[in-house]
Amino acid sequence: AQSVTQLGSHVSVSEGALVLLRCNYSSSVPPYLFWYVQYPNQGLQLLLKYTSAATLVKGINGFEAEFKKSETSFHLTKPSAHMSDAAEYFCAVSDKGYSTLTFGKGTMLLVSP
Amino acid sequence: NAGVTQTPKFQVLKTGQSMTLQCAQDMNHEYMSWYRQDPGMGLRLIHYSVGAGITDQGEVPNGYNVSRSTTEDFPLRLLSAAPSQTSVYFCASMSTGAYNEQFFGPGTRLTVL
Predict the structure, then answer these.
(1) Is B91:B73 a contact under the CB 8 Å cutoff?
(2) Is B102 part of the contact surface with chain A (CB cutoff 8 Å)?
(3) How far, in Å, CA of A25 to CA of B62, rounded?
(4) Per-residue pLDDT tens digits for A23-53
């Protein structure tokens, strides 16, 4: 079965600082990887996805992630945090013959002024 | 397109009661899934379907039933509610294709007393 590990249940940064959210995966098949964001009391919104076309993936709101097969990682970064980035972020890998997702436990990003 | 819709948005049940969470999508997606979200646990797969008439269990299926009689609808039934089923429930759909994203509904917040 596929699995995802997100290091750090909470990450705190100052506004303008680099954001780095870590994700490592385990997959028995070529992985397709996703980052979703959830703002308070809302549903999930796709930030970006890795589909094997390019290892560096750019998403919405200035986020990007790099797929590193040798490290089985798909870390999410943003050069400069904004207050509006405060949310919970989930890394996920395709599962069940690519018909569902297996999620990490999530990382809450806190942004201070 | 309305996307993925879920009803109700909120529900309070007493232990032992039964109910059905409704999910519908208007994107003609073959794949549909139900997840539950609990603090610190991420999203966990309850049941999923790869087409009308085909369903299968996910990671946490106990206490839940599903059926898929049409492409559009994928209801989740709680047979005898328990406090452990207090959670936020998300329905998702996606088209076939390994790297396609899942589209999530707005969620149903369920409390079992």
Answers:
(1) no
(2) yes
(3) 26
(4) 999 987 788 899 999 998 889 999 999 987 7
